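Usage example:
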Amino acid sequence: MLMHLPVLVVLAPLLGAPVVALMRGSTWPWVLSTLLSWFSLLCAVLLLVQVQSQGLVIYTMGGWEAPWGIEYRIDFANALLLVLITGLASVVLPYARLSVEQEVGTERAPMFYAALLLLTLGLCGITATGDAFNIFVFLEISSLATYTLIAMGRDRRALTASFSYLIMGTIGATFYLIGIGFLYVMTGTLNLADLAGRLPAINESSTVRTAFAFIVTGICLKLALFPLHLWLPNAYTYSPSAVTALLGATATKVAVYVLVRFVFTVFGIDFSFGMEPLAEVLIPLAVIGLLSASTVSITQPNIKRMLAYSSVAQIGYIVLGIAMGTAMGLTAALLHVFNHGLIKGALFMVLGAVMYRMGGTSLSDMQGLAKTMPLTFWAFVIGGLSLIGVPLTVGFVSKWHLILAAIELGWWPIVIAILVGSMLAVVYVGRVIEAGFFGEAKDPTRREAPAGLLIPVWILIFANIYFGIDTRLTVDIAEAAAAQLMAGGIVR
Amino acid sequence: MSGLGVWNYLIIIFLMMTGFYMVISSSNLIKKLIGLNVFQTSVFFLYISFGYIEGSAGPVYVEGVDLYSNPLTHVLILTAIVVGVATISVGLALIIRIKESFGTIEEDDLHKMDSSL
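Running the assembly step on the lines above writes:
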């Protein structure tokens, strides 16, 4: 059983999804998918423990040795991501029940849970696999599930949001496919570790450089790097609350992981940063993205949309860390991937609770929340502080590491940009908190959100504080992952 | 290079750009989706061209044939075709629902209706 952990993480939601889709009502599909997500989380945690003792876990599909067969290759970076994905799924699914009954309806609930499981499966698959084409297939599985989930939103604009994501997502995935094709022609292999071994010899070839450009552009579309982020704000704003929480916390992060995997493992630092102008392209985009998206989010009347723009800004921080091309920058990026997942998951779930009671997530719905829904409101305050990066929260840990990495390189303008971005976050989080504290409640008779929503929210909020105080676990894993990635692809 | 030579690649690039241009320039959602499909199909052709080795036979074992074209790219593309079909059908399903709830599938009209909400 322990031997099969890498595949069990992916297999549990894959086998569960069709069963869930065939069920009726909303209770049993919910129970089954929640149990499956907990099972996946258990596998992912055990896998992380295994990786910590062995350094690398390899699983060959059907016993076919790579590069002939497909292998799952788990090191620190993907083990951390798997824990994040399955962890968020295990918190969002219990939460989904009430929220889905209200926003999606009992009729469509089984399909909803099936799509949510498929999304989890796709994201875990991308993370676990060691095969470039397999990544494409899982990418499309998760994307197709995402399109249907977004379209289940109540607002009819969810449909147009989903359609434009479908167009952009498919173009991104097809770009990735073209890049993989070029690499296959040059090397005759699709296995990531094998590619990493063969590419240095043919670095000079223009086909390889074209492949690099296609792959990076395609993935940047999926991870919503400025200016390729246009699909994101609408998609996050109009999808059901539980979907936004899971997407906001995990989907773009997995794309970040694929970027890291290709830049550092497959192509290698010497090629990506030495021969190709990756840093020169990514750093300006990341900085403009984090400053402009933070500024735009200040003016948003809808808080869900505000947080969506804030997600674009946070992607800017993460890409900045990657573009530094140093072990410290990469550590900061991976830390922020994990920590931002916890922050945004919690905040979007808080908004789901507001949606449940108030029927909307605009600033006027948040007025006077401190009196009517104190627990929900305080969850937002703590999550918001974590988003800003106040000490004792996870947001501080990753921003601190990012600033240290920038100082190590002597990039003072970047340090200033990061600080300005945090100041902007103070403004946009602050105005919500102000409205909650000092605003007049529209309807003072509204009560606190039910426990079914509050307990998952507070679990994530506690995770925000816990990993903000006890940083050993996350920082150690992120550092080990960065060391493995910097050492190049062939980690034996 | 005799036979097809680089011609198939030129055709692929032409198809790819045609599809991409349709996606960007069309206002009608169905036309956008057709463009997307052309764009994806050009990539399928690209992969199939990759697999061909000059003078090779199809990848079926026959006495007296030594050189086969690479079947792996064909297999990959079978998977990609399935993915493409799924994407297009989800897209069409979305268009039907957009038509039902907005009454139009012209992007310009949709933008106007969106901003008035």
